Amino acid sequence: MDGWITFWKYVYIVGLASFFVVAAVIIPLGARNLIQLFRQLGGGRTEGQATDEPDEG
Question: 8 by DSSP, 3-state: which?
Answer without folding.
Answer: helix
